[in-house]
Design a protein that fits this description.
By secondary structure, the protein is α/β, with parallel strands linked by helices. It is built from 14 helices and 16 strands. It has an eight-stranded mixed β-sheet with strand order 5-6-2-1-7-8-9-10, with helices on both faces. A six-stranded parallel β-sheet has the order 13-12-11-14-15-16, with helices on both faces. A two-stranded antiparallel ribbon has the order 3-4. Strand 15, helix 12 and strand 16 form a beta-alpha-beta unit. The radius of gyration is 21 Å and the shape is globular. 45% of the residues are buried.
Length: 363
């Protein structure tokens, strides 16, 4: 009987939410009793969920609690529930550090001698440790996260790169590198330009590169825009799928205009489910010039759809991608990314071969 504890499962938080739902559904499918404790956080707002009774979703029981403060996604009701119920489980799986939910979960699990696993979600990468209140993070790590990790039965790393980051920070707890899974059948259909025909007909005859990510500085979208400007190729289009802080998205759009590539970029906004899968079928290649990515669930979804990928060395699975011949790894700089994009534009057969290897790597 396993309890997963995560600060939020809102789709606005991207990969962590997708990974949790896939993981718990897979466990339930093989007969494990799985429950999730989380908050109703939905970014700036709250999810339309019941706070009075748990919800069953695809064999997994979800307990939702009011997120009372946006900072650290604090929830007193979650704390009270964990105090009363932790002892009823065989194992806890905690997702995320530097967020409130892990603190009471680890404390009460240790008190009741229930083993727990921690999935850091890339929070121990040097980039993450120096962003968004770095002084506060250093203090929090010394007081809370270090203790949470030290008492864990295991740390669940999703890539060897993530484990190396943790070891460099001094984490000595036993760890296991277990990649995240995706439902490959969801992405098995071949190329289909229907989405382009309906929403971006000007791109139907272009080689379409796709970015699928939460739009924040960590994802390096600026590099993709700079690369597009460096290419100066009318055969190429870039579609950016995702949303983020309005001021930042506006700054990205102004950058595209300043670089002279406004007409070569489509800002598609947030997508999920079948709409996202239709977008993946419509694209020719996937790019992620991220500054820090412990795994890269969107990269794996793109590869499952048969897309070759271009990633930076900071993407956790970049080296596995290169070894499999499923894509290219280049430094996060516009001219370098442009060279990689040009190589895929000018060699369609290479794109096709890499796409086939990408699907096989995901399997």
């Amino acid at each position: 009987k396993i309890l997963h504890v995560i600060p939020s499962i809102s789709a606005v938080h991207g990969g962590p939410s997708v990974a949790l739902e896939t993981m718990t559904r897979a466990l339930a499918n093989v007969g494990v009793e799985v429950e999730v404790a989380t908050t109703d956080d939905d970014g700036a707002g709250h999810l339309p969920v019941s706070l009075d009774a748990p919800e069953m979703r695809e064999g997994v029981l979800y307990h939702f609690f009011r997120r009372q403060l946006h900072f650290y996604k604090f929830s007193l009701p979650l704390t009270r529930w964990l105090r009363r119920h932790v002892q009823a489980y065989d194992v806890l799986h905690l997702h995320a550090l530097f967020s409130y939910a892990a603190m009471p979960a680890a404390f009460f699990a240790a008190r009741e001698r229930v083993p727990y696993i921690v999935r850091p979600l890339g929070t121990l990468h040097p980039y993450g440790m120096t962003q968004h209140h770095p002084t506060f993070k250093r203090i929090s790590y010394a007081l809370f996260e270090k203790r949470i990790l030290g008492r864990a039965a295991y740390v669940h790393y999703t890539s060897a790169l993530e484990e190396a980051d943790a070891r460099a920070l001094g984490v000595t707890t036993r760890g296991a590198v277990i990649p995240l899974g995706v439902a490959t059948n969801d992405f098995s259909r071949g190329p289909d330009r229907a989405w382009l025909e309906a929403h971006a007909p000007q791109f139907c005859d272009r080689v379409v590169f796709l970015v699928l990510a939460r739009l924040n500085p960590k994802k390096g979208i600026e590099v993709a825009l700079d690369a597009l400007a460096s290419l100066q190729d009318a055969r190429v289009g870039l579609i950016v799928v995702g949303d983020g802080d309005a001021a930042y998205v506006n700054a990205l759009q102004k950058r595209a205009e300043m670089l002279g590539v406004k007409e070569s970029v489509v800002w598609a906004g947030f997508m999920q489910g079948e709409e996202k899968r239709a977008m993946l079928r419509a694209a020719d290649s996937f790019v992620l010039p991220s500054l820090s990515e412990n795994f890269g669930i969107a990269v794996v979804e793109a590869m499952a759809a048969g897309l070759p990928v271009i990633v930076t060395p900071e993407v956790g699975i970049a080296r596995e991608i290169v070894r499999a011949g499923a894509g290219l790894m280049v430094a996060g700089e516009g001219a370098r990314f442009a060279q990689a994009m040009r190589a895929l534009v000018e060699h369609p057969a290479r794109r096709q071969e890499m796409g086939a290897r990408a699907r096989e790597l995901v399997r």
